[in-house]
Amino acid sequence: MFIQPVFWIIIGMLGLLMITSAKYWLSDLNIVMKWWKWLLAGAWFVLLSLSLAGGMTLIGEGEQQAGLYFLGFSLLIILLLGVGLWRLLARKKKDTNQ
Question: Do 47 and 54 touch, CB atoms closer than 8 A?
Fold first, then answer.
């Protein structure tokens, strides 16, 4: 009874810490974030969270094979989208003075 609410409180605190520290992490990497980049990064994170939740729910319900297929397929897509998002975020503007 006591463990479940404490678990979700800790997960919420870690999520908040991750979100608030993202700004400082990106500024250390010299990545300028506009509102649309934040929106894309947030959408990617929500897609990752939903995919993990869906796959783990299937596994927890006794559908291990379906859960593993779901996780494998969705995480492959999320990995490809994550690489594309990282390349978009880390892209530097070309210097026009050369």
Answer: no
